[in-house]
From TrEMBL:
Zinc phosphodiesterase, which displays some tRNA 3'-processing endonuclease activity. Probably involved in tRNA maturation, by removing a 3'-trailer from precursor tRNA. This is Ribonuclease Z. InterPro entries: Metallo-B-lactamas (IPR001279), RibonucZ/Hydroxyglut_hydro (IPR036866), RNase_Z/BN (IPR013471). Zn(2+) 2 binds at residues 66-67, 211, 269. Zn(2+) 1 binds at residues 62, 64, 140, 211. Binds 2 Zn(2+) ions. Keywords: Endonuclease, Hydrolase, Metal-binding, Nuclease, tRNA processing, Zinc. The gene is rnz. The active site is at residue 66. Homodimer. Belongs to the RNase Z family. Its EC number is 3.1.26.11.
Amino acid sequence: MNLEAFVLGCGGMMPLPYRHLTSVLLRRDGDLFLFDCGEGTQVSLKRLNLKWKKIDAIFISHTHADHVTGLPGILMLNSQVDRTEPLYIYGPPKIAEYVETSRKVLDMYINYPIIVKEITAPCVVHEGKDFYIRCFPLQHTKTCVGYTLEELDRPGEFNVEKACELGVPVGPLFGRLQRGEEITLSDGKIVRPEDVMGSKRHGRKFSFVTDTLYLPSIAKEVQGSDLLICEGMFADDCADQAKEKKHMTSRQAATIARDSSSKRMAMIHYSPRYSDKELPVLLEQAQEVYPNAELTRDRMHFDLPYEE
């Protein structure tokens, strides 16, 4: 099962000609999840040629303009395809008011259900058959949350040779053992799943953190991420400004990645004060703490394979 992340916009505060505002699309086979929806989101979606008009759920970190101004367009363009499935929108208080007001003022034609759920406490906000998405509190100038998508553990590998040694005939009994069922052979011998199955294998984890003061608690929330998308808005010489505006430096983002043992960390939501030529200073400072730190760019793609 594929799990891929597409950075639709990596900028913060204001869009630039070469940098749209913060948004990330996560594709898990047929499921599409959008994290924040800044100005320019539609442009990147179009340029990537993704089949995105049936997004399953949108997760908003907070209701500052640079994270939600792309949302009305997404809602309207989703009406260009036939869909009966609801679109879920999650976010802190005021997201429901923003969506409803936008629909009324713009007189939107919407041909599908929109279900808005406001977050008031850390919780699991969205669930699927073998995964869940939860939120956790951040500290910004208004209520803000981070998100993680976490897959459930997968069954261990089925040992065909061992099953045959135990006398299990090739066929439907193999499937029952793989589904966790105990079986009885024709001679009365009992074979249990643990006799032929390897240890459970971990699922994958994606984390999205932006617009927050540095908090040591964030590392626990994103622990073991296969990919952590994290705000790294300022360089060290702007640490006081970052604290005043309740943002993070790239070094602080790297500290979270290191302390959470994340496999990869890619920074997002850069201050517009940094041109693309100046962004390497953020990367250099982050890599002093976490050598695997990366910079995101608009329309950058990340593949999250299983760790076998």
